[in-house]
Design goal:
CATH superfamily of the largest domain: Zn peptidases
CATH topology of the largest domain: Aminopeptidase
Shape: globular
Radius of gyration: 21 Å
Bound molecules: zinc ion
CATH architecture of the largest domain: 3-Layer(aba) Sandwich
Largest sheet: 9 strands, mixed
């Protein structure tokens, strides 16, 4: 298994905007990739992509998933000076948005560029330009059009509730790093697609559903997962920082997050597989974190649940990982799909 396929899909995958609730474009992109591999995916009413793989055995049903949706902003209101007041989609680290380029997409699919800035934007004018807290009240969008009033902005077709896409600034370095917003969870989407590419001619051990989920960032992505599954290993970013063991070169196995512990036996099985396959892995607890396992459990799905994923630095801010972490994640996911 190598990273050639993954590196090939990274630019388009990351540049396809997919803030929670705006799933059409990313769904079409991922469907095309899966169909080119020879798979037959479907899209659910909720916008999740589901792919059913027939296993060698049928006495257990497994599922895996990663989420396609990302963080973003939405127009809350139009200010009298022609700037936009915003509301958050998911939980972006708001101070990191100050100065970022963005795109406003109207409901008629008109697109305008802009910059997310603080209302005290100029150091030469505002005493608090450096000290003002960057929050939803103090941030705004400066549109790259000659607008001077609310009416000017309305004339462009921009309205409350329009999506604002944050520039992911995707960069691949020669040293093997992937720098971008939304590696959570497109890094994991890459890992699953890489595993599917490598298993095109191979059946997994058990019948397996593969889900590409939307609306995870707002907490209910996998709530609509097939209720018949026995095991669910979701692939989502690993945390890095403070006293955690996670890093940009390993796959993280999450023992517990804000929703409580993951399934003991399934988590043990993943640790065992990582040891057997000599996969670089860490076990961590994720302090402020929820996942699609919690969404499935809260919706009443009676399954074992576990979480693995590449370590991602500065999550929900200006993220980074190394392709090593994506490769180790792919190895562990494939080992799981092949295992008893
Ligand atoms: Zn995530």
């Amino acid at each position: 298994m190598d990273l050639n396929f993954v590196k090939k899909i990274v630019p388009d995958l990351f540049l396809t905007d997919s803030p929670t609730g705006y799933s059409g474009e990313i769904d079409r992109y991922v469907l095309r990739i899966l169909e080119e591999m020879g798979y037959h995916p479907q899209v659910t009413n909720k916008g999740n992509i589901v792919l059913k793989l027939e296993g060698k055995k049928h006495d257990k049903i497994r599922a895996t998933s990663a989420h396609l949706d990302t963080l973003g902003l939405m127009v809350r209101s139009i200010n009298s000076d022609g700037t936009l007041q915003v509301t958050n989609i998911g939980g972006p680290c708001l101070p990191t948005l100050d100065g970022e380029y963005c795109k406003i997409v109207t409901r008629n699919q008109k697109r305008y560029t802009g910059t997310i800035l603080c209302h005290s934007a100029s150091s030469h004018v505002y005493e608090d330009a450096k000290s003002k807290p960057r929050d939803l009240d103090s941030l705004m969008v400066r549109i790259d059009e000659k607008v001077f009033s609310k009416k000017d902005v309305e004339t462009l077709g921009i309205a409350n509730g329009d999506y604002i896409m944050i520039d992911p600034k995707t960069t691949l370095t020669v040293s093997g790093f992937l720098k971008s917003r939304f590696i959570d969870d497109k890094g994991s989407v890459c890992a699953i697609l890489g595993v599917l590419e490598s298993m095109k001619e191979e059946k997994p051990m058990y019948d397996t559903y593969v889900y590409f989920v939307n609306q995870e960032e707002v907490g209910h992505g996998a709530s609509a997962i097939c209720p018949d599954i026995d095991e669910f290993v979701t692939v989502d970013m690993g945390c890095i920082g403070k006293d955690l063991a996670g890093n940009e070169y390993a796959v993280s196995i999450c023992a517990k997050d804000s929703g409580g512990p993951y399934s003991y036996e399934l988590t043990n099985q993943l640790c065992r597989l990582a040891q057997q396959e000599k996969i670089r892995y860490v076990v961590d607890i994720f302090p402020y974190y929820g996942s699609d396992i919690g969404a499935a459990w809260r919706s009443g799905v009676d399954c074992k649940g576990a979480l693995i994923g590449p370590g991602v630095h500065a999550s929900h801010g200006m993220e980074r990982t190394h392709f090593d972490a994506i490769l180790e994640t792919m190895k562990l996911l494939r080992a799981y799909l092949r295992s008893e």
